[in-house]
Amino acid sequence: MKAAVFREYNKDPTKVVKIEDIDMPKLKPNEVLIKVESASYNYNDLWAIWGDPIKTPLPHISGSDVAGTVAEVGEDVTKLKLGDRVVSHSNMSCRVCEMCTSGREFDCSDRTIWGFQTGPLWGGFAQYTHLPEVNVVKLPENVSFDDAAAVSMVGMTSWQMLVGRAKIKPGQMVLIMGGTSGVGMVGIQIAKLYNCTVIATAGNKEKMDKCIEIGADYVVNHREADWFKKVRDITKKTGVDVIFEHIGKAAFPQEVALLKTAGTLVSTGATTGYDTTLDLRYLFFKGTNLLGSTQGTKAELEEVIYWTSKGKIKPVIYEILPFNDMVRGHVMMAKAEQIGKMITTPHKL
Protein backbone atom coordinates (compact mmCIF):
# COMPACT_ATOMS: atom_id res chain seq x y z
CA MET A 1 0.00 0.00 0.00
CA LYS A 2 1.01 3.64 -0.32
CA ALA A 3 1.63 5.88 2.67
CA ALA A 4 3.04 9.36 3.38
CA VAL A 5 6.26 8.60 5.25
CA PHE A 6 9.04 10.71 6.72
CA ARG A 7 12.28 9.19 8.00
CA GLU A 8 13.90 12.23 9.60
CA TYR A 9 12.78 15.50 11.18
CA ASN A 10 12.82 18.76 9.25
CA LYS A 11 11.15 22.17 9.52
CA ASP A 12 10.30 21.93 5.79
CA PRO A 13 7.79 19.09 5.22
CA THR A 14 8.45 19.07 1.47
CA LYS A 15 12.01 17.84 2.09
CA VAL A 16 11.10 14.76 4.11
CA VAL A 17 7.48 13.64 3.55
CA LYS A 18 7.34 11.20 0.63
CA ILE A 19 4.69 8.84 -0.76
CA GLU A 20 6.18 5.36 -0.38
CA ASP A 21 5.13 1.76 -0.92
CA ILE A 22 5.10 -0.07 2.40
CA ASP A 23 3.78 -3.38 3.68
CA MET A 24 0.13 -3.77 4.65
CA PRO A 25 -0.49 -3.71 8.42
CA LYS A 26 -0.70 -7.00 10.30
CA LEU A 27 -3.65 -7.01 12.67
CA LYS A 28 -3.67 -7.88 16.34
CA PRO A 29 -6.69 -9.91 17.51
CA ASN A 30 -8.46 -6.79 18.90
CA GLU A 31 -7.86 -4.58 15.85
CA VAL A 32 -9.63 -3.66 12.64
CA LEU A 33 -8.09 -2.77 9.29
CA ILE A 34 -9.54 0.42 7.79
CA LYS A 35 -9.49 1.34 4.13
CA VAL A 36 -8.84 5.07 4.47
CA GLU A 37 -11.13 7.11 2.25
CA SER A 38 -10.44 10.47 3.89
CA ALA A 39 -7.78 11.78 6.30
CA SER A 40 -7.60 15.27 7.75
CA TYR A 41 -4.70 17.40 8.93
CA ASN A 42 -3.99 18.61 12.47
CA TYR A 43 -1.23 20.78 13.88
CA ASN A 44 0.29 17.79 15.63
CA ASP A 45 1.22 16.50 12.14
CA LEU A 46 3.65 19.43 11.92
CA TRP A 47 4.98 18.79 15.41
CA ALA A 48 5.69 15.21 14.36
CA ILE A 49 7.55 16.31 11.21
CA TRP A 50 9.54 18.91 13.14
CA GLY A 51 10.36 16.53 15.98
CA ASP A 52 9.32 19.34 18.30
CA PRO A 53 8.04 19.57 21.06
CA ILE A 54 8.59 15.79 21.28
CA LYS A 55 10.42 13.26 19.17
CA THR A 56 8.01 10.93 17.40
CA PRO A 57 8.93 7.38 16.35
CA LEU A 58 10.79 7.12 13.04
CA PRO A 59 10.06 6.21 10.30
CA HIS A 60 6.72 7.91 10.81
CA ILE A 61 3.24 8.14 9.29
CA SER A 62 1.30 11.11 10.65
CA GLY A 63 -2.46 11.59 10.64
CA SER A 64 -4.82 11.28 13.62
CA ASP A 65 -8.18 11.63 11.82
CA VAL A 66 -9.41 9.09 9.29
CA ALA A 67 -12.70 7.84 7.98
CA GLY A 68 -13.29 4.84 5.76
CA THR A 69 -14.55 1.28 5.68
CA VAL A 70 -13.61 -1.80 7.68
CA ALA A 71 -11.56 -4.07 5.41
CA GLU A 72 -10.59 -6.80 7.89
CA VAL A 73 -11.28 -7.64 11.54
CA GLY A 74 -9.18 -9.37 14.16
CA GLU A 75 -10.42 -12.61 15.73
CA ASP A 76 -11.44 -10.88 18.99
CA VAL A 77 -13.44 -8.09 17.33
CA THR A 78 -17.16 -8.38 18.11
CA LYS A 79 -18.89 -5.06 17.35
CA LEU A 80 -17.59 -4.26 13.87
CA LYS A 81 -17.81 -6.15 10.60
CA LEU A 82 -16.48 -5.92 7.05
CA GLY A 83 -17.86 -2.95 5.17
CA ASP A 84 -18.84 -0.87 8.21
CA ARG A 85 -18.35 2.86 7.69
CA VAL A 86 -16.18 4.18 10.54
CA VAL A 87 -14.18 7.09 11.91
CA SER A 88 -11.14 7.00 14.20
CA HIS A 89 -11.01 7.96 17.87
CA SER A 90 -7.39 9.02 18.23
CA ASN A 91 -7.11 9.04 22.03
CA MET A 92 -5.44 5.72 22.84
CA SER A 93 -5.47 4.60 26.47
CA CYS A 94 -5.32 1.44 28.59
CA ARG A 95 -9.15 1.38 29.19
CA VAL A 96 -8.73 -0.35 32.57
CA CYS A 97 -7.14 2.19 34.96
CA GLU A 98 -9.08 4.42 37.36
CA MET A 99 -8.98 7.39 34.96
CA CYS A 100 -10.22 5.33 32.01
CA THR A 101 -13.00 3.59 33.91
CA SER A 102 -14.21 6.91 35.37
CA GLY A 103 -14.67 8.34 31.88
CA ARG A 104 -11.40 10.27 31.77
CA GLU A 105 -9.40 8.22 29.29
CA PHE A 106 -7.66 11.44 28.18
CA ASP A 107 -5.98 11.48 31.62
CA CYS A 108 -4.74 7.88 31.40
CA SER A 109 -1.06 7.64 32.36
CA ASP A 110 -0.53 5.38 29.31
CA ARG A 111 -2.36 7.72 26.93
CA THR A 112 -0.97 8.37 23.48
CA ILE A 113 -2.33 10.27 20.49
CA TRP A 114 -2.66 7.95 17.53
CA GLY A 115 -0.88 9.19 14.42
CA PHE A 116 1.30 11.51 16.47
CA GLN A 117 2.97 9.49 19.21
CA THR A 118 2.42 6.03 17.73
CA GLY A 119 4.75 4.15 15.45
CA PRO A 120 6.91 3.44 13.69
CA LEU A 121 4.74 3.59 10.52
CA TRP A 122 1.39 3.82 12.29
CA GLY A 123 -0.87 6.73 11.42
CA GLY A 124 -3.68 7.88 9.18
CA PHE A 125 -1.98 9.21 6.04
CA ALA A 126 -1.99 5.82 4.33
CA GLN A 127 -4.28 3.80 2.10
CA TYR A 128 -4.91 1.38 4.95
CA THR A 129 -4.45 1.70 8.68
CA HIS A 130 -5.29 -0.31 11.79
CA LEU A 131 -6.82 0.55 15.16
CA PRO A 132 -8.11 -1.28 18.22
CA GLU A 133 -11.86 -1.85 18.00
CA VAL A 134 -12.37 0.47 21.00
CA ASN A 135 -10.84 3.34 18.99
CA VAL A 136 -13.34 3.11 16.15
CA VAL A 137 -16.80 4.71 15.91
CA LYS A 138 -19.47 3.75 13.39
CA LEU A 139 -20.69 6.43 10.97
CA PRO A 140 -24.32 7.13 10.03
CA GLU A 141 -24.94 6.81 6.30
CA ASN A 142 -25.63 10.54 5.95
CA VAL A 143 -22.23 11.61 7.31
CA SER A 144 -19.65 11.67 4.52
CA PHE A 145 -16.13 10.34 4.98
CA ASP A 146 -14.74 13.83 4.40
CA ASP A 147 -16.99 15.42 7.02
CA ALA A 148 -16.24 12.67 9.53
CA ALA A 149 -12.48 13.00 9.13
CA ALA A 150 -12.70 16.79 9.30
CA VAL A 151 -14.72 16.88 12.53
CA SER A 152 -13.49 13.95 14.59
CA MET A 153 -10.53 15.24 16.62
CA VAL A 154 -11.46 18.93 16.67
CA GLY A 155 -15.06 18.01 17.38
CA MET A 156 -14.46 15.85 20.43
CA THR A 157 -11.83 18.31 21.70
CA SER A 158 -14.29 21.21 21.45
CA TRP A 159 -17.12 19.18 22.98
CA GLN A 160 -14.93 18.20 25.93
CA MET A 161 -13.90 21.84 26.44
CA LEU A 162 -17.35 23.39 26.37
CA VAL A 163 -19.69 20.62 27.51
CA GLY A 164 -17.47 18.26 29.50
CA ARG A 165 -15.30 20.83 31.30
CA ALA A 166 -16.95 24.30 31.15
CA LYS A 167 -20.47 22.80 31.34
CA ILE A 168 -22.01 25.57 29.26
CA LYS A 169 -25.65 26.49 29.79
CA PRO A 170 -28.21 28.10 27.48
CA GLY A 171 -28.10 31.89 27.52
CA GLN A 172 -24.46 32.23 28.50
CA MET A 173 -22.04 34.60 26.78
CA VAL A 174 -19.22 32.53 25.28
CA LEU A 175 -15.97 33.89 23.80
CA ILE A 176 -14.41 31.61 21.18
CA MET A 177 -10.79 32.57 20.57
CA GLY A 178 -9.43 31.78 17.11
CA GLY A 179 -12.85 31.16 15.62
CA THR A 180 -11.59 29.87 12.26
CA SER A 181 -9.21 27.30 13.73
CA GLY A 182 -10.38 23.70 13.55
CA VAL A 183 -11.47 23.65 17.19
CA GLY A 184 -12.77 27.21 17.02
CA MET A 185 -15.20 26.57 14.19
CA VAL A 186 -16.70 23.57 15.94
CA GLY A 187 -16.68 25.47 19.23
CA ILE A 188 -18.85 28.21 17.73
CA GLN A 189 -21.36 25.65 16.53
CA ILE A 190 -21.47 23.74 19.83
CA ALA A 191 -22.08 26.97 21.75
CA LYS A 192 -24.92 27.85 19.37
CA LEU A 193 -26.31 24.32 19.76
CA TYR A 194 -26.64 25.24 23.45
CA ASN A 195 -28.31 28.57 22.57
CA CYS A 196 -25.43 30.66 23.86
CA THR A 197 -24.47 34.12 22.62
CA VAL A 198 -21.13 33.74 20.84
CA ILE A 199 -18.36 36.28 20.42
CA ALA A 200 -15.59 34.95 18.17
CA THR A 201 -12.15 36.32 17.37
CA ALA A 202 -10.24 36.07 14.09
CA GLY A 203 -7.22 37.67 12.46
CA ASN A 204 -8.57 39.25 9.26
CA LYS A 205 -11.81 40.23 7.56
CA GLU A 206 -12.16 37.01 5.58
CA LYS A 207 -11.84 34.94 8.73
CA MET A 208 -14.15 37.29 10.65
CA ASP A 209 -16.81 36.89 7.96
CA LYS A 210 -16.49 33.10 8.18
CA CYS A 211 -17.11 33.21 11.94
CA ILE A 212 -20.39 35.04 11.36
CA GLU A 213 -21.31 32.63 8.54
CA ILE A 214 -21.01 29.59 10.80
CA GLY A 215 -23.01 31.11 13.64
CA ALA A 216 -21.10 33.65 15.74
CA ASP A 217 -23.23 36.57 16.91
CA TYR A 218 -20.27 38.96 17.12
CA VAL A 219 -16.66 38.92 15.96
CA VAL A 220 -13.58 40.99 16.75
CA ASN A 221 -10.09 41.08 15.24
CA HIS A 222 -7.69 39.66 17.82
CA ARG A 223 -4.74 41.21 15.97
CA GLU A 224 -5.88 44.68 16.99
CA ALA A 225 -4.31 45.96 20.19
CA ASP A 226 -7.66 46.86 21.76
CA TRP A 227 -9.50 43.64 20.83
CA PHE A 228 -10.34 42.86 24.46
CA LYS A 229 -11.90 46.32 24.92
CA LYS A 230 -14.20 45.61 21.98
CA VAL A 231 -15.23 42.31 23.57
CA ARG A 232 -15.98 44.10 26.84
CA ASP A 233 -18.04 46.69 24.98
CA ILE A 234 -20.09 43.93 23.32
CA THR A 235 -20.89 42.53 26.77
CA LYS A 236 -21.87 46.03 27.99
CA LYS A 237 -18.87 45.79 30.31
CA THR A 238 -20.31 42.83 32.24
CA GLY A 239 -17.80 40.30 30.88
CA VAL A 240 -18.24 36.79 29.49
CA ASP A 241 -19.30 33.56 31.15
CA VAL A 242 -17.02 31.13 29.31
CA ILE A 243 -13.80 31.59 27.32
CA PHE A 244 -12.69 28.92 24.84
CA GLU A 245 -8.90 29.33 24.89
CA HIS A 246 -6.07 27.90 22.81
CA ILE A 247 -4.06 31.04 21.98
CA GLY A 248 -1.83 31.18 25.05
CA LYS A 249 0.70 33.84 25.95
CA ALA A 250 -0.45 36.61 23.59
CA ALA A 251 -3.99 36.79 24.96
CA PHE A 252 -4.22 34.95 28.28
CA PRO A 253 -4.01 37.90 30.74
CA GLN A 254 -6.64 39.87 28.83
CA GLU A 255 -8.90 36.82 28.60
CA VAL A 256 -8.88 36.26 32.35
CA ALA A 257 -9.75 39.93 32.90
CA LEU A 258 -12.76 39.57 30.55
CA LEU A 259 -14.47 36.90 32.68
CA LYS A 260 -17.52 37.63 34.78
CA THR A 261 -17.48 36.82 38.47
CA ALA A 262 -17.41 33.00 38.70
CA GLY A 263 -16.65 32.83 34.99
CA THR A 264 -14.75 29.94 33.38
CA LEU A 265 -11.75 29.84 31.06
CA VAL A 266 -11.05 26.44 29.50
CA SER A 267 -7.76 25.95 27.68
CA THR A 268 -6.60 23.26 25.29
CA GLY A 269 -3.45 24.79 23.81
CA ALA A 270 -1.04 27.72 23.58
CA THR A 271 -0.11 28.45 19.98
CA THR A 272 1.58 31.78 20.84
CA GLY A 273 3.59 30.44 23.78
CA TYR A 274 3.24 28.65 27.11
CA ASP A 275 4.63 31.15 29.61
CA THR A 276 2.24 33.89 30.65
CA THR A 277 1.36 36.24 33.50
CA LEU A 278 -1.76 36.31 35.63
CA ASP A 279 -3.09 38.95 37.98
CA LEU A 280 -4.12 36.67 40.83
CA ARG A 281 -6.69 39.18 42.05
CA TYR A 282 -8.89 38.13 39.12
CA LEU A 283 -8.59 34.55 40.34
CA PHE A 284 -9.57 34.87 44.00
CA PHE A 285 -11.69 38.04 44.13
CA LYS A 286 -13.86 36.95 41.19
CA GLY A 287 -13.97 33.24 41.93
CA THR A 288 -12.55 32.49 38.49
CA ASN A 289 -12.42 28.93 37.17
CA LEU A 290 -9.32 28.08 35.12
CA LEU A 291 -9.65 24.66 33.50
CA GLY A 292 -7.41 22.55 31.32
CA SER A 293 -8.73 20.21 28.64
CA THR A 294 -7.29 17.80 26.12
CA GLN A 295 -8.98 15.78 23.38
CA GLY A 296 -12.13 13.97 24.49
CA THR A 297 -13.79 10.65 25.18
CA LYS A 298 -15.13 8.18 22.65
CA ALA A 299 -18.63 9.01 23.91
CA GLU A 300 -18.00 12.70 23.17
CA LEU A 301 -16.87 11.83 19.65
CA GLU A 302 -20.12 9.89 19.20
CA GLU A 303 -22.06 12.99 20.36
CA VAL A 304 -20.29 15.09 17.75
CA ILE A 305 -20.95 12.58 14.98
CA TYR A 306 -24.64 12.43 16.03
CA TRP A 307 -25.08 16.20 15.80
CA THR A 308 -23.15 16.24 12.52
CA SER A 309 -25.65 13.71 11.16
CA LYS A 310 -28.46 16.07 12.24
CA GLY A 311 -26.87 19.03 10.44
CA LYS A 312 -26.30 20.96 13.67
CA ILE A 313 -22.53 20.71 13.40
CA LYS A 314 -21.23 21.34 9.89
CA PRO A 315 -17.53 20.71 9.30
CA VAL A 316 -15.81 23.43 7.30
CA ILE A 317 -13.51 21.93 4.66
CA TYR A 318 -11.09 24.26 2.94
CA GLU A 319 -9.55 21.95 0.35
CA ILE A 320 -9.36 18.26 -0.55
CA LEU A 321 -5.90 17.31 -1.80
CA PRO A 322 -5.00 14.26 -3.91
CA PHE A 323 -2.65 11.97 -2.03
CA ASN A 324 0.36 12.56 -4.28
CA ASP A 325 0.11 16.28 -3.42
CA MET A 326 -0.75 15.81 0.26
CA VAL A 327 2.42 17.49 1.60
CA ARG A 328 1.03 20.79 0.34
CA GLY A 329 -1.48 20.56 3.17
CA HIS A 330 1.34 20.59 5.72
CA VAL A 331 2.85 23.69 4.08
CA MET A 332 -0.48 25.52 4.05
CA MET A 333 -1.16 24.63 7.68
CA ALA A 334 2.27 25.92 8.76
CA LYS A 335 1.50 29.26 7.08
CA ALA A 336 -2.09 29.34 8.46
CA GLU A 337 -3.36 29.92 4.93
CA GLN A 338 -6.53 27.88 5.21
CA ILE A 339 -9.94 28.66 6.69
CA GLY A 340 -11.26 25.27 7.66
CA LYS A 341 -9.95 21.75 7.64
CA MET A 342 -7.81 20.25 4.90
CA ILE A 343 -8.41 16.71 3.70
CA THR A 344 -6.44 14.21 1.67
CA THR A 345 -7.80 11.10 -0.03
CA PRO A 346 -5.23 8.26 0.05
CA HIS A 347 -6.99 6.17 -2.61
CA LYS A 348 -7.04 9.10 -5.04
CA LEU A 349 -3.46 9.76 -6.11
Quick structural summary:
The protein is of the alpha/beta class and 349 residues long.
Structure description:
The chain has 349 residues and is α/β, with parallel strands linked by helices. The protein has helices spanning 43-50, 98-101, 145-165, 182-193, 205-213, 227-234, 252-258, 280-285, 298-309, 327-335, and strands at 2-5, 18-21, 31-40, 65-73, 85-88, 91-92, 112-113, 128-132, 136-138, 173-176, 197-202, 218-221, 240-245, 259-267, 289-292, 317-322, 341-345. Strands 3, 4, 5, 8, 9, 16 and 17 form a 7-stranded mixed beta sheet that branches. Strands 12-11-10-13-14-15 form a 6-stranded parallel beta sheet, with helices on both faces. Helix 7 links the parallel strand 13 and strand 14.
Radius of gyration: 20 Å
Name the quaternary structure: single chain
Mean of all residue-level pLDDT scores: 95
- Give a quick account of the main beta sheet: strands, pairing sense, barrel closure: 7 strands, mixed
Q: List how many beta strands DSSP finds.
A: 17
Pattern of helices and strands: EEEHEEEHEEEHEHEHEHEHEHEHEHE
Give the overall form.
globular
If helices are DSSP runs of H or I spanning 4 or more residues, what is the number of helices? 10
Strand content: 15-25%
Are there runs of 5+ residues with pLDDT below 50, and where? none
Proportion in helices? 25-40%
